[in-house]
Amino acid sequence: MNAAPRIAERALLCAGLLTGAAALLHVAIIVGGPAWYRFFGAGERMARLAARGSAYPTLVTADHPETPTHLVLYRAFSALGGVVHTHSHYATVWAQAGREIPCMGTTHADYFHGPVPITASMADDEIASKYEENTGHAIVRRFSELDPTTMPAVLVAGHASFCWGPTVTGAVQTASILETVARMAYDTAALNPGATPIATALLDKHFLRKHGKNAYYGQPTAV
Ligand SMILES: [Zn+2]
After folding, report:
1. Distance between CA atoms of residues 17 and 29, nearest Å
2. pTM of the entire structure?
3. Cα–ligand 1 centroid distance for 78 (angstroms)
4. Which terminus, N or C, of the chain has the lesser number of Cβ atoms within 10 Å?
């Protein structure tokens, strides 16, 4: 292996992972192509390789060190069809700050039913042994009283985000939306440090009109 692919591989290993429940391969990255590589922060070299139809980006994503984290999530959250892990900038900033992402507006409420949670910091022994698997367990513990179908994302303290959905495409969309609301929340706090999260009534209205059994927003029967 020459030097260039090694650089590209490191970029992707650091940047993220996408898996589908069925194959646990990065099929959606293959389907999504260069634009998705860029979103995942894999770098221009990887994107150009994908654009040229090179098999290399596929090969390096098929055996990722964080796959054990995804396996824990698939086992614990039965509805998952895809999981995405990225180090997208603003979501990662919140994770590094050790702060959940507060629901500061209805853009957030349209997709996440409450603040996007953050895990507890992992203990030294959890990091020393089976780190990636234990990352999954830390996420599952954080969701002991949360519903992964209404909160399709989490921040791992000091690390970055994991997002999911019923399909691999849905998981990618969640990751993209998470980055948007993370940036909005960051900018809101910068502009007005005293800004507070929206009221529960407004959160519920926006989330529940789009999700759940009584959803009506965007439905054919809406009046
Ligand atoms: Zn990571």
Report:
1. 9
2. 0.75
3. 23
4. C
